Automatic annotation (TrEMBL):
Domain of life: Bacteria
Domain VOC span(s) in chain numbering: 1-125
Pfam family, one: Glyoxalase
Listed PANTHER family: GLYOXALASE FAMILY PROTEIN (AFU_ORTHOLOGUE AFUA_5G14830)
Organism in which the protein naturally occurs: Cellvibrio zantedeschiae
Name this polypeptide is given: Glyoxalase
Annotated transmembrane regions: none
């Protein structure tokens, strides 16, 4: 199941304002925001229904950055299995399995780049 997806925007503040207004009409709001100092790469903002963002924007150059898609799984073992299988299938490491407590205390994910450079993730939100 898709957990969340992210797109790259050229004007972060303008796009954040746009999506804040446009998505309010369907019950979405800005739920989380992380600066480059936290993510290590760029500013990001997450929109969704309380309390879980599932649509993210990030500062960058559209068409020159990878798309991000995350698949939600029910156990950390499945995150580990995804990462191992993706690497064996030719994916490139973009962050091995582990906790990402800056997102929330139980966020356990693994990130790979697919053959086209897209950032693909498996994530488990459960405690184990």
């Amino acid at each position: 199941m898709i957990d969340h997806i992210g797109i790259v925007v050229s004007d972060f503040e303008k796009s954040k304002a746009f999506y804040t207004s446009a998505l309010a009409a369907i019950g979405y709001s800005l739920i989380m925001e992380f600066p480059e100092s936290v993510t290590g790469t760029t500013d990001v903002a997450g929109f969704g229904e309380p309390e879980k963002p599932d649509f993210w924007i990030s500062r960058g150059t559209p068409g020159k950055s990878s798309t991000h898609a995350a698949f939600r799984v029910e156990s950390r073992n499945l995150v580990d299995a995804f990462y191992k299988a993706a690497i064996e299938a030719g994916g490139k490491d973009n962050g091995g399995p582990g906790l990402r407590p800056h997102y929330h205390p139980n966020y356990y994910g693994a990130f790979i780049f697919d053959p086209d450079g897209n950032n693909i993730e498996a994530v488990c939100h459960n405690e184990v």
